Amino acid sequence: MASEFDFIIVGGGTAGSVLAARLTENSDVQVLVVEAGEDLTADPRIKVPTMWPQLQATDADWKLKTVPQKALGNREILIPQGRLLGGSGALNGMVFAPPAQEELEAWADLGNPGWDWDGVSKYLKKTYTLTSGAKTEGDGVLQLNIPDEETKWPQVWRDTFAGLGFPAGNEPFSGQIHGVVSYPDAVHPVTKTRSFSGNAYLAPARSRPNLTVWAGVSVDRVLFEQTPDSAIATGVQYTKDAKMQTVTARKEVLLCAGTFYSPKILELSGIGDAERLQKLGIDVVVDNPYVGENLQNHPLCSITFEVGGDDDEAEGFETIDAIARQDPTALGAAMEAYKTEQRGPFSQTNFNVTAHIPFPGIATDDGKQDLDQILEKHTGTTTTNVPGSKTTREYATAHQSLIRSVLNSPTGASGYYTHFPGWAYFGPTVLHHRRDAEVLARHVRFLESSLAAAPPLAGRLKHRRQEVAAPSGWPRGFSGHLDEARRFVRETAIGAMHVTGTCSMMPREKGGVVDPRLRVYGTRNLRVVDASIMPFTTRANTMATVYGIAEKAADMIRAGL
Description:
This protein has helices at residues 14-23, 44-47, 101-109, 117-127, 153-163, 197-205, 258-268, 274-279, 321-324, 328-341, 365-378, 434-451, 466-469, 482-492, 543-559, and strands spanning 4-10, 31-35, 64-66, 78-79, 128-132, 135-137, 142-146, 179-182, 211-215, 218-226, 231-240, 243-255, 271-272, 286-287, 299-307, 353-356, 400-406, 417-420, 423-426, 461-464, 494-495, 526-528. By secondary structure, it is of the alpha/beta class. It has 2 domains: 1-39 and 84-146 and 192-297 and 496-561, FAD/NAD(P)-binding domain (3-Layer(bba) Sandwich), CATH 3.50.50; 299-409 and 429-493, no CATH class. The strands form 6 sheets. Strands 1, 2, 9, 10, 11, 12 and 22 form a 7-stranded mixed beta sheet that branches. A 4-stranded mixed beta sheet has the order 4-3-19-18, with no helix packed on it. Strand 5 (128-132) and strand 6 form a beta hairpin. Helix 1 packs parallel to helix 6, helix 1 (14-23) runs parallel beside helix 15 (543-559) and helix 4 (117-127) packs across helix 15. Keywords: FAD, Flavoprotein. Its cofactor is FAD.
């Protein structure tokens, strides 16, 4: 194994793979990618879109869970994160959801020049080629596809929201995201296989003689040479076959280890809260108490309904329940349709049509007053929820429709880590702030009392499925009662995979870890390039935004060569 490279990329996930491909376009640059996980690019669980949950909680997943969450009845919440080449983009739900313009403008306003809509959206567009029917847009290597609608559910969804005053919003790449939006899948439009950084960026670049990829190798820490005014990253220490070794970086070390492991590596390298590091016996290189802080994630709740309609009306209203139950007949038919015609439930994510709506009732005086009271009562406070009973879940034999509420703008929380055999714990992260719980409860109540009761959706649903959606002994529905909605949130809410913020890009005095060029404060040549640099999370999943961050970072780095 070579012992010296120009750039060392720590983490071969979404951002790391993009950087590796872009930097090695310059044949004079030698690049090393070090990835703790393995190369599973050919694994059918990655390639076939609907099989994406099957890699979670395996060795391809970091198997992260929170400490017991007081806001959630002391439940521990699993947060899947990719531990393989391609990272979380290899095991997520593949929905490509670009950020909104106002979100990026907020990044810039915080003190990050060049990170506004104009400064980031052009890099996002550089990433993809989008196919929608016969129309193709862009020439990026990542393949996106807006799938054909094979059921009537998407149109029912649009019509129902329109009837409630939420018409179809703008197209998802406009930056103006509101109302009903159809997001593309990161799925190849012809082969109907997952398109992600591992096969779109990294795989084609691996034939280049100036790119080296080490899979199954864990980086322990970054090595530094101290100068009077800054620390210079000279390489990394890594573990291979239970042996600790080092490799040298001539130019830069690029941390792309993700929201949990980039700050962990920084702290193990001596960058973090000095008091904490000294207690752990770690020599302090840079004192920055904000490393690992500002952890953000999207909390979500799901309500399940039994689908109505008689057999004559069922055509076009099929669900994927039988596949979720591993029914042999349904699985066989779906796989045959996928293999022979590249269609059916295995060919897409089934998550494309969504809706971005404001606080329920915000257009009314009562709604405005309700929101004002939440903000006044819960600003700057943490949760006081008491533990509740555990959720019981089981598969039902009826056809079901699941409606999910995701809180787009959660309040950040501190992050910390505890390691046990086989699992890593962190927290708090889900509904840590009481305000988030109050807002999510109102959205959940809206889903049941307003959305599911509105035509034409109401005509396709029978009732809530108690045995799937709620703990035993609950009433069939909330009946508009906010207390029951709060309890439902406390006992069923989980966290998404959309974790951000632990190495935030902002001025150091405001809580920043990296500057607008993604350099770690106090260092000369160490950068962080992944979702951890987002000072505020985006309103949907973070995959698209990470691609834009990585493309922009690649240009910044190449400009300095």
